[in-house]
Structure formats: C-alpha cells, structure tokens
Amino acid sequence: MAVASWTCTGFDSCGKVRTMYSALSAGAIGVSVSDLASHLAAAKVGGFAGIELGGKALQEAAEAPSLLTDAGIKAAGFGLPVDFRQDTPPSDESLENLRKSAAAAASIGLDRCATWILPMSDTRTFDENFEFHVSRLAPLAAILAEEGVRFGLEFVGTPSLRAAGKYEFVYDLAGMLELAAAVGPNAGLLLDCWHWHTSEGTVEDIEAVPESKIVYVHVNDAPEGVALADLQDNDRRLPLETGVIDLAGFISALRNIGYEGPVVAEPFSSRLKGLESDEARLKETGDSLRKLLA
Length: 294
Description:
- By secondary structure, this protein is an alpha/beta fold.
- The chain has a single domain, classed as TIM Barrel (Alpha-Beta Barrel), CATH 3.20.20.150.
- 41% of the residues lie in helices and 18% in strands.
- It contains 12 helices and 11 strands.
- It has helices at 36-46, 55-63, 66-71, 92-107, 126-146, 159-162, 173-183, 193-198, 203-207, 247-257, 270-273, 278-293, and strands spanning 7-11, 17-24, 50-52, 74-79, 112-116, 120-121, 150-154, 167-168, 187-192, 214-219, 262-265.
- An 8-stranded parallel beta barrel has the order 2-3-4-5-7-9-10-11, surrounded by 4 helices. It has a two-stranded antiparallel ribbon with strand order 6-8.
- Helix 2 (55-63) crosses helix 4.
- The relative contact order is 0.16.
C-alpha cells in the first residue's frame, strides 16, 4: 500500500503539473538505516515520498525494483561514492564503483547524484582550485552521463567555513553554475537553502536558473539571534522552525522555475537528534516538510 506523501505543485505555461516531493536523508536527522528494507520502513514512518539511496540499499533496489513501487516510494538521489578531494586522482576501483552505482540508479529511473564543494583551500588559489575541481569532476560527470544521471554540485556559503582556509573558493549560486558548466552538460546545482541564505542569495537568483540545472534541493532553517558571520554549518534547524531563512520565497522560486524533484531536510540539529526515538525524529522531520510543501 502506498504511503501518504506530501507534495507541492504548480503549473508551467503548458498546464503540466510540476511537483516537488519530500525525500528522506536518514543520516542527516540521526536515523540509522542500512539496507533497502530499513530505508523504506523509515520513510513510511515519516510519510516521505522518496528516499536517498546508496551502497547496499541502491544495489538492492536495482535487484528488486518492485520493492520501491510496491511501497509507493521514489528513489530520490544518491551521494557521489568517490573521494575526489585528495591530491591523487580517484583509483580505478572507485571509478568502477561509480559506474556500477550509476548503472544501478539508471535501472530504477534514478537520475540524480550529488556532492558538495569546499569553499576554501589552504594550498590552491582560486584559479588553481577551479582547474583542480574541473580535472577531478569532469571524468566523474562523464561516467554519470553515460547512464543518463545528472550531477548536482553543492556550493557552501557559510562565512565561517569560507574564512577557514587561506584562499576562498566558489561559495554562491552563480559561481557554482560556472563551475558546473565547466564540469559537464549534465552538471548542475545541489541547492541548499542554508547556503543560499548564508551567501546572501536572493529569490531572483534562483528564478534566473534554468530548471534543468537544479538537480537536488536541501532545506533547513537557521538558529535565531545569531549573526550571519557567526553561523556554524553544523548547527541548523528543521525547515520553518525559526523563520530565519526565507523558505517561502525559496520554495516559491523553485515552483516558479518548474522544479519537480526531491526536497530533503538537512537540519544537523542536536535537538532533533536528542529526541527519544527514530520514530520521533522521522515524524517531526516529515511534518516539517509537509508544512513547507503544502
């Protein structure tokens, strides 16, 4: 039986329904899952319409796709399974693992992979870092493209992180679009409202982005009474918990450009992780997304 799910719909100029849907990233809210069955069970508890998959769970979904369809839950996305940030290029083994993950994802209609980009470096100037990231990410994007998988790159706007290195790097929407264009035609944005807020982005910035370039979306809120410069990346709140981030404007802008993909809560909240059970965490997170997307 399909679970209840919460979506946000709008219409394009041709009258086609555009739908955003809630998706679960269990690790982001302190919920432990391992195999596909535990992912699906967790999604049902919170009423999520989709789940992030990776590793064992992704391979299991590819082997038994009916488990997803029978549950009425979508495969929303998967994280890049390659460590590209080291001085040495990724190994042949890690590239082969990416090929397998991309093929498994494609077999169940999952076409979204994403990773994050550090906004600073102690060793590389901006131009050197740009060249480094293109050299590392372009081959990965090409492997994903072979299976029709899109590649979302997340910019990190938090000022305290940007100041943590000697050389600042890409930290906003415009800069990441430029990097994505250099990485490959299937590369775009993982757009997180926290980093949009901390980089002082605007609704107009989002509305200027082609829908095809928004690969994935994260939502959360910021603590009250903390100056922008003092915000810590790992201290966030659930969507709409404080009202510090303009989530209404953020979601409205995505609706206006026709985004029709997963919306994932990534609160990094000690209060949420301190709740008495996984069930409580799942239900509160699912509730917050339901209210946001209503």
